[in-house]
Amino acid sequence: MTQNIAFIGLGNMGGPMAKNLIKNDFKVTVYDLNAHVVADLKAAGANTADNAKAAIKDADVIISMLPNGAIVKSLYIGNNGLINEVKDDVLIIDSSTIAADDARAVAKACERKGIAMIDAPVSGGTAAAEAGTLTFICGGEPAHFEAAKLVLSAMGRHIFHAGASGAGQVAKICNNMLLAIHMVGTAEALNMGAQQGLDPKVMSEIMKASSGNNWSLQVYNPFPGVMPNVPSSNDYQGGFMVDLMSKDLGLSQELAAKSKSATPLGAMATQLYQIHQAAGAGGKDFSSILQLFQKK
Ligand code: NAD
User: Fold this and answer.
1) CB-side exposure of 112: number of CA atoms within 13 Å?
2) Of 20, 98, 121, 262, which has the fewest Cβ atoms less than 10 A away?
3) Rg for the chain, CA atoms, rounded
4) How far does the chain reach from its first CA to its final CA, in angstroms?
5) pLDDT for 266-294, tens place per residue?
6) How buried is residue 116: exposed, middle or buried, by Cβ count under 10 Å (0-12/13-18/19+)?
7) Which of 51, 66, 137, 177 to mutate for ligand 1's pocket (most ligand atoms within 8 Å of CB)?
C-alpha cells in the first residue's frame, strides 16, 4: 500500500527531496510558510495544505526539513504541537540540521506518546537533494530506522544508523566541522601558492596526487576557474551558504563545550566563518572562505 507522506519545509533542500518522493510514486502532501514553494510542489504533483496540521492529517510518515531547532521543537512539541494531532502509527523523520539535544527533546516527547521518531540530517547539499543521492545520518530506535529506509532511499544513496536519538545530529555536526576545517586549509594552501605565482589548477592536481588530497580539492575546489560546475566558478552562488555553515559550526562548539571535547581547529574555523559572515558573505557558498585570505 502506498504510504501517505506529509512534507514540511520546502526550501533549497526540502523542495527537491519532496519532488523525488513524488517521482518514486509516494503520495505527498506538502506545507511551507512560503506560498511560492508550495505552488512549485503543486505543479510537480503534490497535494497541498494550508497549515501543518492539515498536511499531517492522514500521514503515515511526516518529514520535516526546517532551518533550526527552535522551529522544529515548536512544530512538534510547542503549543498545539503536531504530536497531539498525528495518527498513532505515524513515523516522524526530521531531516533538519539541529542540536542533538533539540532532536532528543522531540524524540522523548514522541516516546512518551508511543510515537516513532528519528533524526535523519543529511549530507550532500542541493545538487544531491535534486539527484536523490543524499547521505542520511540517522539516530533513533533500530526498528524506527528500518521503517524509515524505504522512504529515505527515494531521496538518498547512503543511509546510516549512527546510534540512539540525537546520534544522527552528532555525526552530522562532526562531519560538517571537519568539512569546514579542510575547506579552510585547502583555501589557505591554494591562496598561498597562487600568491607565489603558481597556477591553482596545477597546484590542485599536485595536491590531489599527494598527501594533501581531500574532498574539497577533489569535488569542490574553492579557487575560481579550477573546476567547472562548482560555486567558486559561479561567483560563489548556490551550494551551501556561509550562514548555514556558521550555524553548524556554532552547533559544533556547543557540543564541544557540553562534552568537554577539545576542538581547537573547529573553534578556529568557527571564528573564521563568523568573520567572513560579518563581512557580508553570509549568502555566498562556504568555499568563498578563500576570499578572506586573498589580497584585496
Ligand atoms: P531553506 O531556508 O532554503 O528552507 C527552509 C524552508 O522552511 C523555507 O522554505 C521556509 O519557508 C520553511 N519554513 C520555516 N519555518 C517553517 C514553519 N514553521 N512551517 C513550515 N515551513 C517553514 O533551508 P535549506 O537550505 O532547505 O535547509 C534546511 C535544513 O537542511 C537546514 O537545517 C540546513 O542546515 C540543512 N541542510 C542544508 C544543506 C544545504 O546545502 N542547503 C545541506 C545539508 C543540510
Assistant:
1) 8
2) 262
3) 20
4) 60
5) 999 999 999 999 999 999 999 999 999 99
6) buried
7) 66
Q: Is the pLDDT of residue 1 over 70?
A: no
**Active site residue ranges:** 172
CA 74 / ligand 1 centre spacing (Å): 15
Supply the DSSP string of 13-73, one letter for each residue: THHHHHHHHHHTT-EEEEE-S-HHHHHHHHHTT-EE-SSHHHHTTT-SEEEE--S-HHHHH
DSSP 123-161: ESHHHHHHHT-EEEEEES-HHHHHHHHHHHHTTEEEEEE
Q: How confident is the model at residue 71 (pLDDT cuts 50, 70, 90)?
A: very high
Residue ranges of the domains in the chain?
4-164, 170-293
CATH of 4-164, one of 3.90.1170.50, 3.40.50.410, 2.40.50.140, 3.40.50.720: 3.40.50.720
- Ligand 1: nearest atom to the Cα of 71: 18
| Residue minimizing CA distance to atom 34 of ligand 1 | 97
Q: Hey, what's the cell of 85?
A: 494531532
CATH architecture of 170-293: Orthogonal Bundle (1.10)
Tell me, what's the ipTM?
Answer: 0.99
Q: For residue 66, how far is its CA from the centre of ligand 1 (angstroms)?
A: 4
Q: 194-242 pLDDT, tens per residue?
A: 999 999 999 999 999 999 999 999 999 999 999 999 999 999 998 889 9
